[in-house]
Amino acid sequence: MASSSIVYGLYAPRSTAGWSTRRRDWLRTWLPVLACMMAFAVESTSYLGADRTDAPLRRVAEALFGYDIGVHWNLIHHLIRKTGHFAGYGMFSLVCFRGFWRTFQSAASPMLRQLRAHGLAILATFLAAGADEFHQSFVPNRFGSFSDVLLDTYGAVALCFVLFLAMQAVERRRRTACSPEPASVEAVSLG
Fold first, then answer.
1. Given this model, what pLDDT does residue 76 score?
2. 190 has pLDDT over 50
3. What is d(CA 58, CA 36) in angstroms, rounded to the nearest whole number?
4. Are 32 and 98 in contact, with CB atoms under 8 Å apart?
5. How far is CA 132 from the centre of its chain?
6. How far apart are CA 115 and CA 122, in angstroms?
7. How confident is the model at residue 92, as a pLDDT?
8. How far apart are CA 191 and CA 174, in angstroms?
9. Over the chain, what is the mean pLDDT?
10. Distance between CA atoms of 132 and 41, rounded to whole angstroms?
11. Contact 150/122 with Cβ under 8 angstroms?
12. Domain ranges of the chain
C-alpha cells in the first residue's frame, strides 16, 4: 500500500508560489536585456542621428578642450559615435551573457555553461545590431551599415573575451585557495 505522502504529492494541487517565483526570476534575468534593446530602439530614431548629435557634442567638447578642437571635429565626432557603438553593444553582450548564464544553471559542466552563454550572448548581440541597422535603413536621416553591425559584434566579442578571462582567473584562484597546501619539507622531516 502506498503511503499517503506519495499519493498526496502526486495529486496535490500545484502551488502558485512556484510560478510566481519563476516569473520573478525570469523578469530579473531578462528585463535588463529588454531595457537595453529599448534603449537601442530609442537611439535609432531620427532624433539621435549624426546630424542631430553633432552640435551638442561639439559644444561639450569645445567647453572641455577649447575651440581648437573644431579643426578635427568631423573625425572626433565619428570616433565618438563608433566608440559608442563598440562600448554600447559590448555592454549589451554582457547583459545577455548574464541572462544566458542564469538560464543555463543546470548545465553539466561550468565550462560548457560559460561557453554556451558567451556564444549566445555574441549571437544575440549580432542579431540585435543587425535589426537595429535594418531599422535605421528606413529612418529618413539615418542609414543602415553592415560595418556598424560588425563593429558592434567586435565590441561583444572583446568584452565577452575579457569576461571569459576574468572568470577563468577567478576560478583558478578559487581552486588554489580551496586546495590543501602540501606539507613543507621541514615539517615532514621534523615529524
1. 92
2. no
3. 26
4. yes
5. 16
6. 11
7. 98
8. 30
9. 86
10. 7
11. no
12. 30-177
Please state the pTM of the whole predicted model: 0.79
- Whose grid coordinates read 540585435? 128
Q: How many angstroms from the chain centroid is the CA of residue 190?
A: 54
Beta-carbon count within 10 A of 82 CB:
15
Angle between helices 73-103 and 16-43 (to 10 degrees): 170
| DSSP code string of the chain | ---HHHHHHHHSPPPHHHHHHHHHHHHHHHHHHHHHHHHHHHHTSGGGSHHHHHHHHHHHHHHHH-GGGGGGHHHHHHHHHHHHHHHHHHHHHHHHHHHHHHHTTT-SSHHHHHHHHHHHHHHHHHHHHHHHHHHHTTSTT----HHHHHHHHHHHHHHHHHHHHHHHHHHHHHHHHHSPPPPPHHHHHH-
Residue at 13: amino acid letter? P
pLDDT digits (tens, 9 = 90+) for 17-68: 577 888 898 999 999 999 999 999 999 888 888 888 889 999 999 999 888 8
